[in-house]
Amino acid sequence: MSDVRGRVGSLVAILVIGALAAGAAGCKEQQLSENNVALQKQLEKALGDNAEMKGQLETLSAQNQELQSEMEKAKGPGTMPPGPAGRNPRTKPEFGEGTETKMTGEMMTVTLRDEVLFAPGSADLKPASKKLLDKVASVLSGEYKGYNIRVEGHTDSTPIRKTKEKWDDNWELSCNRALAVVRYLTQKGVEDGRIYAAGFGSVRPVASNTSPGGRAKNRRVEIVVWPKK
Hints:
There is one protein chain. By secondary structure, the protein is an alpha+beta fold. It has 2 domains: 75 residues; 143 residues, CATH 3.30.1330.60. Helix content is 51%, strand content 14%. It is built from 5 helices and 5 strands. A 5-stranded mixed beta sheet has the order 1-2-5-3-4. The longest helix is centred in the N-terminal third of the chain and has 74 residues. The chain is elongated and about 105 Å long.
């Protein structure tokens, strides 16, 4: 009889433990379900916020493009954008045949072909070139007054032959050509404290030295102008 009671007691205990475990599992499952619902709501809210922000970003981007377009129209052709400290836009000057003017932001580069300025192998300015340089000096002393100026001499890669007794190499020739232009510009009123000469020989070609046309493009003087900071 006692054995029967013991077995019944054990069975009851097992059923109680099982019921408690089932109850605990049910509570845990309900908690996980509630957490999942909460996370789902947070995700939906985040997605909604993201969509709203994306819409605002697209609107701002469109407004920025429209503003940029209006600024480009306001600048008009042949002008530079305003520079540091509220500088006014600069007009792109043109100096005539044998020259090219390029604007890059606040920087201006005037390229002069060597045959406009010098005879082959020479660093003496041609008399006809001085009229051109007078125009350059006028612009540098007027609209670009106070800007830095670097006058660069460039050659092709062909070794010097006709005047090799005068120049050791193209590097020396390019330096003296740049210096000749600097001296003339300062004589015409460009302040010597903001201008200097630099010779690069053949190390900065703009075209291939394998053809006559390419070599002609490489033989040049460049006047680089940029604002003082």
